[in-house]
Amino acid sequence: MSRMVAIVGFQRSGTNMVRSLLATHPRLQVYDEIFNARRPEDGEEHVYKLRNFWNYMLGRAESDPEMVLPMRRPELIGDYLDALIEASAPAVPVIDIKFNSFHHGNAGWHDLTQPPRLLDLLREREVPLIHLYRRNRLKRALSVQTARKTGIYAVRKEIDTSDRHTEIDPRALLGDLVADHIEIKQVMHMLGNYPLAAQVDYEDLYRGDSREPDLTALEEALTRFGLPGPMTTEHLVRKLNSDRLQDVISNFDEVEAALRGTPFAEHLAG
Q1: In the prediction, which pLDDT does 164 show?
Q2: d(C-alpha 147, C-alpha 129), whole Å
Q3: pLDDT computed for residue 242 by the predictor
Q4: Residue 254 to residues 56, 167, 260, 268, Cα–Cα distance (Å)
Q5: N or C: which end of the chain has fewer CB within 10 A?
Q6: Which residues contact 126 (CB under 8 A, 6 or more apart)?
Q7: Angstrom distance (rounded) from CA 167 to CA 260
Q8: What is the reported pLDDT for 9?
Q9: 6 burial type by CB count under 10 A (0-12 exposed, 13-18 middle, 19+ buried)
Q10: Residues forming beta bridges with residue 199, ordered by sequence position
Q11: Where are the beta strands (DSSP E) in 86-166?
């Protein structure tokens, strides 16, 4: 059985929803994004104070200020991962790491062509990865822009989002999609040699027009990692947008014209 599981992915790939689903698993202790800074609240239990790496670093720096130096970062993150495993026992901790946060595990000097040191730290501990991937890059880009504009990155089930419309800057969107294409190639190369990675596609979690997730792919990944067990869809987080791009992009015709003839035009159909 795995001693820790890491959810990895780009922003707006369904990580909030997957965390809320995994939280219903009786053998898992689910944490937020470990590099999303959050101050611990008064009276908060020790295990929850560990929910992000920066809290842990501040605590260690009180007795050893040199722990904040870049050359000590891999050592510190390794200690943090071990502390999460110990504090969560007998449950298995689940952590969330976005690809744009992997660099936090590097020491002071790190070649741009080298895999991030954090990936090595996870491999050394035989931590399996659930790689959340969103095949429709246009919908992910739309989700990113919507979240930035509204400040809403996840919603509870009872909140009505049916009347959510977003105007998209076509030129900025095309630039985002090109950058996204480059990043995806780098990520796929990075994960290609990782021995314990299971890709779970967002489109397999939400099939058709359903707003309720299909747990099959997630359950298969956990079983592969030695963590079979029941989960429920009675989670608190749900998807923000409709599957029909025409329903959420107020200037859809303009966006469609800008993407026509590009490799990204196929995503317009959903």
Answers
A1: 61
A2: 25
A3: 54
A4: 47, 10, 10, 12
A5: N
A6: 2, 3, 196
A7: 18
A8: 94
A9: buried
A10: 131
A11: 92-98, 129-133, 155-156
End-to-end CA distance of the chain: 38
Q: What is the per-residue pLDDT for 153? A: 58
pTM: 0.85
| pLDDT attached to residue 24 | 92
Place of tokens 């923000």: 240
Q: Where are the beta strands (DSSP E) in 117-186?
A: 129-133, 155-156
Q: Which two tokens stand for residue 40?
A: 């611990």
DSSP calls for 122-139 = HHHTT--EEEEE-S-HHH
Peptide bond before residue 90 is cis, with ω within 30 degrees of 0: yes
- What are the tokens at 38? 């959050």
Element at 16 (helix H, strand E): helix 15-22
Residues of the chain whose pLDDT is less than 70?
A: 1, 38-49, 149-164, 208-210, 235-243, 270
The residue whose two tokens read 């795995």 is 2
Residue type present at position 242? S
Rg over CA atoms, the chain: 19
Amino acid letter, 16:
N
Tell me the two tokens of residue 20: 């809320």
Domains of the chain: residue spans and CATH = 5-137+154-165+195-239 (3.40.50)
* Residue partners of 186: CB distance under 8 A and separation at least 6: none
Dihedral angle computed from the Cα positions of residues 234, 237, 243 and 246, in that order, rounded to the nearest 10 degrees: 140
